Amino acid sequence: MPRAGRYRRRWPRDATGVSERLLAACRPGAPASDLLGSYTGAGEPLPPMPVARGLGLGFDPPVVTGALRADRAERAHRGGMVLALTSYVWEAGVGAAFRRDTVLVTGDRPELLTSAPVG
Hints:
The protein is α+β, with helices and mostly antiparallel strands. It has three helices and five strands; from the N terminus they run ααββαβββ. The longest helix has 22 residues, at 3-24.
């Protein structure tokens, strides 16, 4: 099987796995570093763009990237925050699968606001 074909079949599944981990990390009191751990826990490298950012009137905090300073990485999510989560799975020289979900952090569990189908 050609290399590109093998990865194209893997990417939607792997991007969904990263998305599920990112969603689970969106709970009040959880540190921003848990979002970064969603990638390492899924066996994927951190993407070249933020894995999460706040949504509001612009590019709102938090902005969670692999270059996040330690003091920022331990800041906790608060109930009522709305985040854009980025699932990005790629293979150099082949291509990538990209997904962005909007999530509301609630007291019980994160609420997925994105209505696009998965897969």
